[in-house]
Amino acid sequence: MTAWAERESPFDAEVRSDGNEAFVVDLDGFAGPIDVLLSLARSQKVDLSRISIVRLADQYLDFVAAARRRSLQVAAEYLVTAAWLAYLKSRLLLPRPVLEDDEPEPEALAAALAWQLQRLDAMRRMGHRLFARPQLGRDTFLRPAAKVPAAPSVPAVPAGACTLTQLLAAYAGHLKRQQTPRLVVTPSSLMSVDAALARLRAGLGAVPGWESFLRYLPEECLNDEADPLTTRAAVAATFVACLELAREGAVRMRQARPFGPIFIIAAEGGSTGGG
Amino acid sequence: MADDALRLLEAMLFTAGEPLNERWLARRLPAGSDVKRLLARLAADYAGRGVQLVRAGETWAFMTAPDLGAQLAADRSHELKLSRAAIETLAIIAYHQPVTRADIEQIRAVHVSKGTLDVLFEQGWIAPQGRRDTPGRPVTWGTTDLFLRHFGLTSLKELPDAAELRAAGLLDAAPAAILGLPAAECEGSAAQ
Amino acid sequence: MADDALRLLEAMLFTAGEPLNERWLARRLPAGSDVKRLLARLAADYAGRGVQLVRAGETWAFMTAPDLGAQLAADRSHELKLSRAAIETLAIIAYHQPVTRADIEQIRAVHVSKGTLDVLFEQGWIAPQGRRDTPGRPVTWGTTDLFLRHFGLTSLKELPDAAELRAAGLLDAAPAAILGLPAAECEGSAAQ
Prior knowledge:
The complex is a heterotrimer, with 1 copy of chain A and 2 copies of chain B.
Chain A lengths: L32 H11 L9 H17 L6 H18 L12 H27 L31 H16 L13 H11 L7 E2 L15 H21 L2 E5 L6 E5 L9
Antiparallel strand pairs in A: 1-3, 2-3
Helix pairs in contact in A: 1-4, 2-3, 6-7
Chain B lengths: L3 H13 L3 E2 H7 L6 H12 L4 E6 L2 E6 L4 H4 L11 H13 L4 H8 L7 H7 L3 E6 L7 E5 L1 H6 L11 H6 L25
Antiparallel strand pairs in B: 1-3, 2-3, 4-5
Helix pairs in contact in B: 1-3, 5-7
């Protein structure tokens, strides 16, 4: 027999009745009333399609009574189910009264309950069957994606594309990050007036004669691929720096006409060291 | 074995390290190749060997034979332990798909806690399949090819006892609303 | 092929990502196995196939047949693994379309490199949808039919909304990390 078939059923632990069918009351072990009902139904040791619903109702009512005797906290849904089963039992046993128009037959209710228990039982067994199968990564193995190509020019062949699972997980991850907003201060890459001043002071002495102040812009602002915002900031900062240096007397500025080019020149005898 | 398309197919599957889709493979074979026939032939070539070519849905992969698992894996500590709730939920999705969350809750008569679908989704075993044309247009869930691959199933038809369960009417839509079984508030301690 | 030692040997060599030493193999085979004879037989089994068992000194490895190298390498240039940033950008386009690049940057609060959009565009998953009537008239992006086909969706309405993602528990864990998505934070690696 193979190793995986010998594994313990994950569901074995729930059946706790002893030989006398006195149920060990442990509400914590159950996932709700239907879980209790299924365990009790199994304790009848018959095919689930032939369980006695009247007996199941008795078993369940005993179970809930025992739990309450032990002062266990019994959640409301257990009591609702108890009341419903007591009602169903009485309907199944008592001579049939005339039914209201919209009232279901008690036998139909009993059959539906038996069916629901059978279905849940089947799903549990199938879950167990699935996990008893050989599993990838435990019993079967894929070849690892080649870390090193086995031979020159023999690549790994990745399937590449992304799955819906990954897509949804990415979006969920994005939404999740949004739930916890955080402040991110991104450093500005725009030129400051201080930086422009430093540039101008360093560069002025090297240029004789009048020159457009745009010549003093950093080179990366002058080519065609420059980001317009960065260039505009550099122009503005450099212009303000020119005005500042003119105020200090370090440069002279000239503009021949409105909106015309602006020229600057180092002031003769003026201090370029600033004040 | 002189068939170049077959050899190329074999080499692609062998080096992939992950399952490959039929259409993906077809695009990479010489024009006019019958990818399905070639895959079937390749699978037959490897039948009984220590390595086998296995289909899961539309994907194919070489993998080691299941009976060698114990000898190949000395260490099983990485094995995923799923809660009982998650195992049960996976079975319900596999057999009843496409199912909504409400369907699952009805079958289990327990609220499906967050984390149950989550863990199955993270494994890549389930995925949303669309929406149901009912009020609220709820999302429906189904299993993936990765699910088939993980459990060594070629297709959903191979789910254990599927035919028997269907014949017994246990996979039919539920008339359970008439039952007095309120869904328990949470799966709580049922997990593990 | 009933020889269990041979099948185990084949499976070990298959799952190894690297060449294996004869002595290492011998220690893992059933006692009394003649590893050299088994290796020779396995190599003979694979002779002429698309995959071959090749010896180098005392180590052995499966590798693809040398004559297939060019055909296998030809595919490779078309393949890409999407970075986490690219997948997230795609998700945001899918959910928020039509969006401009500035919108995406605002939503993700991260700079989106042009390369990321290029990669998605080249896949045929996104396409320009027009221009927005705002200063600069920026291009807006949306997903394509190919996107729907690739992800098995009939329409965009099938994407689960935030509430449904939350209901499935996907907003509680950190799925991306668990799924083992590429962790590249840097957009530069959008395509590898």
